[in-house]
Design brief:
Blueprint: E1 3-12, E2 22-25, H1 27-33, E3 40-45, E4 48-56, E5 74-77, H2 79-85, E6 92-98, E7 101-107, E8 118-121, H3 123-129, E9 133-138, E10 141-149, E11 156-159, H4 161-167, E12 174-179, H5 199-227, E13 232-238, E14 248-251, H6 253-259, E15 266-271, E16 274-282, E17 314-317, H7 319-325, E18 332-337, H8 339-363, H9 369-384
Parallel strand pairs: 1-5, 2-4, 7-11, 8-10, 13-17, 14-16
Antiparallel strand pairs: 1-6, 2-5, 3-4, 3-6, 7-12, 9-10, 9-12, 13-18, 15-16, 15-18
Helix pairs in contact: 8-9
Length: 398
């Protein structure tokens, strides 16, 4: 898959509020590069690479190019993008645009259904991309997908009904896919400007914080293999009123049961290579989504209310978490339960019962310390069994 590189002069957007990195380009340049609003591209400056979302210059307030630079050779970056790249107005930067493939959509096979955001393509497509991680573009926005190699035609992509419904395509229609381009920001995401103190100390804290989170993520990966934590593909909308300043996602009661959690449990929100942790709560009958139309510049895509998407496949995400995931207001994400938090909660609930069991066993002279410890371990393991995600066995039964 070929990549087109173009050098442009950087400028900072004016009156374009957005919590995510956005790049505003001239319409003539967009036409030359075959880009539209909502396309994800890579901006490279020195050793950093950042993914930004494209907007047409005609869709934002008037912008002034740097002195001596025409509009078709200028890229206006949002303040968030400039901070992550350490770019100053007038700097020369490079954008990287991957070519895309148009494939015809076909239903997935019933005996080989793909999971979550997986799709089936021919082996030559994966070989052409050089990776099995891609991104699909639809009227609702961009969504990362995992390519599965299957023996099929090279111009066809097989999708499950869930994936087709969420991205808004029908069988026999065409969908464009491209390579999912990775970022290279080192510790820019973990280096918080809100921390006080010398820059060296703040960077050291960022590295330490990253190390701790990495270890916790390794533990979570092991527990996920043992206990199970399947992902649910959902659409995103605006956070509900009152949740915009909290790390809360509102989901339908059916979604809680599908994820194997209860209200108040922690969940992972995943988009591509990014993930954040939020607390899942039920949607209320009296709740109302916030009206943010026109407030920020990342509001492209169709509203799910216009597409009759089931309520349990829609979640509301606040701007703070969209900023961390660097996703627009309307996109498609994976939601999965955080097994570590559920196990710690279950262990906390067992502290008093197991403690009482141990004290009672030790009070009896006939029971040894080893026997009491073995009994406590057995009770703990049995109490953890319900935490394992239950999946119905496949195949026919006699």
């Amino acid at each position: 898959m070929s990549t087109l590189s173009v050098q442009l002069r950087a400028a900072v957007t004016v009156n374009v509020p957005t919590p995510i990195p956005i790049a505003v380009l001239n319409s003539a340049l967009l036409s030359t590069l075959q880009l539209v609003t909502g396309t994800r591209i890579i901006v490279r400056y020195r050793y950093r690479k950042l993914a930004v979302w494209v907007r047409d210059l005609r869709e934002v307030p008037p912008q002034t190019p740097p002195s001596g630079s025409p509009a078709d050779q200028t890229i206006w970056l949002s303040r968030r993008a400039c901070d992550l790249l350490r770019v100053a107005p007038g700097d020369q930067i490079t954008i990287e645009v991957c070519t895309r493939r148009s494939l015809r959509v076909a239903p997935a096979r019933a005996d080989d259904l793909p999971r979550a955001n997986e799709v089936d393509v021919a082996p030559e497509i994966v070989a052409e991309f050089g990776t099995n991680v891609a991104i699909a573009y639809s009227k609702y926005g961009s969504v990362p997908i995992i390519l599965r190699r299957r023996d099929m035609a090279a111009n066809v992509i097989r999708m499950s009904m869930l994936t087709r419904s969420l991205i808004g395509v029908k069988p026999q229609e065409n969908v464009e896919i491209g390579v999912f381009q990775s970022e290279r920001l080192f510790f820019a995401d973990h280096y918080s400007v809100r921390r006080r103190g010398p820059r060296v100390a703040r960077r050291a804290l960022a590295v330490l914080d990253y190390g701790v989170r990495f270890l916790l993520q390794v533990v979570e990966a092991v527990l996920k293999l043992v206990m199970g934590a399947p992902a649910l593909l959902t659409r995103t909308v605006e956070a509900e009123i009152g949740d915009d300043t909290n790390r809360v996602v509102r989901v339908a009661p059916e979604t809680l049961r599908l994820l194997g959690i209860q209200a108040g449990d922690a969940v992972y929100l995943e988009w591509g290579e990014s993930r954040v942790i939020a607390v899942a709560h039920e949607k209320l009958a009296t709740s109302k989504r916030g009206d943010y139309h026109g407030v920020t510049a990342d509001d492209w895509g169709s509203d799910p209310a216009d597409d009759a998407v089931p309520d349990h496949l829609v979640v509301g995400i606040a701007a703070e978490m969209r900023n961390e995931l660097r996703i627009p207001r309307r996109t498609i994400i994976n939601v999965r339960r955080r097994v570590t938090g559920i196990l710690l909660q279950r262990v906390n609930e067992l502290t008093i019962p197991i403690g009482g069991l141990l004290f009672a066993a030790l009070a009896l002279e006939k029971i040894s310390v080893l026997a009491a410890a073995v009994g406590a371990v057995i009770v703990t393991v049995m109490a953890m069994v319900p935490v394992k995600h239950r999946v119905a066995p496949r195949g026919r039964w006699p």
